[in-house]
């Protein structure tokens, strides 16, 4: 039976976490400790969700063994031409991979939060392991917006439902039920390149949002993919203020000018 969802952290715990993450960031000390299996609080929490018999991850070696096993299964599924990798059992590879990367880069979400600081309701679209919502609930001690975590129905959305079940102001839903008019902020990372019609999705975002934080990976050899990317970015540039990409490939789109801090 799956264990209870994590309890919300207090403002004091969040302030302590943010202080620690900012202090270690210049030397990337946290990532080194995680790779050595020392900072394992994240693993203890994840083990409460991953409770399948015969698949223990109550230690660092067990987690890494399963991560490599699922990665191998995923590669074999690709080679075999599996029709729907998101629903295939190999999608567990993405769950383990995203959780691992989220812990190695615990401040990845902070620039997104800064750019969205004037928004009341934010949707994390194509959320994966929801690094934005996770970061806000663990290391943001100030008032925060309501956040909706939206993705397709797969293992990662099931994990997000468990992770945020007790978090006030955080909601999890299927990506097909998103009502764009409810949101004035959007986070969309590592998603546009997987959408069947990214230009139309971007149009729907811009109709409601004041600020959109996104990235869009370049397609190496697919002409249709490169064309869709160029058209989507052109649409952003025509309808507002588009800046980027940053050194990490991040774009910021604003309907208007500077937005002040989050309001209560």
Low-confidence stretches: 260-264
Helix content: 40-55%
Tally of helical segments: 10
Biggest sheet: strands, sense, closure? 7 strands, mixed
Highest-level CATH class of the largest domain: Alpha Beta
CATH homologous group name of the largest domain: Vaccinia Virus protein VP39
End-to-end span in angstroms? 38 Å
Strands ordered across the widest β-sheet: 3-2-1-4-5-7-6
Query: What number is the mean pLDDT?
Result: 89
User: How much β-strand is present in the residues?
Assistant: 5-15%
Question: Which series of helices and strands comes N to C?
Answer: HHHHHHEHEHEEHEHEE
In total, how many beta strands? 7
CATH third-tier fold name of the largest domain: Rossmann fold
* Count of discrete domains: 2
**CATH level-two architecture of the largest domain:** 3-Layer(aba) Sandwich
Structural class of the helix and strand makeup? alpha/beta
């Amino acid at each position: 039976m799956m264990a209870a969802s994590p309890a919300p952290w207090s403002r004091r715990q969040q302030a302590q976490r943010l202080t620690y993450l900012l202090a270690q960031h210049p030397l990337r000390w946290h990532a080194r400790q995680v790779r050595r299996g020392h900072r394992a609080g994240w693993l203890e929490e994840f083990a409460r969700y991953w409770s399948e018999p015969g698949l223990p991850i109550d230690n660092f070696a067990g987690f890494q063994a399963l991560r490599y096993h699922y990665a191998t299964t995923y590669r074999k599924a690709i080679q075999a031409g599996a029709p729907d990798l998101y629903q295939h059992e190999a999608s567990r590879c993405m769950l383990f991979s995203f959780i691992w990367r989220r812990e190695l880069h615990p401040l990845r979400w902070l620039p997104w939060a800064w750019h969205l600081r004037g928004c009341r309701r934010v949707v994390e679209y194509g959320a994966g392991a929801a690094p934005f919502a996770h970061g806000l609930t663990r290391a943001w001690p100030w008032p925060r917006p309501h956040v909706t975590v939206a993705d397709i129905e797969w293992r990662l959305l099931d994990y997000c439902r468990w992770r945020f079940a007790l978090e006030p102001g955080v909601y999890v839903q299927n990506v097909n039920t998103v009502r764009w008019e409810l949101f004035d902020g959007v986070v969309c990372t590592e998603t546009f390149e997987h959408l069947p019609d990214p230009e139309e999705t971007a149009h729907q975002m811009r109709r409601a949002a004041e600020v959109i934080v996104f990235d869009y990976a370049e397609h190496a050899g697919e002409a249709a993919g490169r064309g869709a990317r160029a058209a989507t970015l052109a649409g952003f540039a025509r309808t507002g203020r588009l800046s980027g990409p940053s050194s990490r490939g991040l774009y910021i789109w604003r309907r208007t000018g500077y937005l002040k801090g989050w309001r209560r």
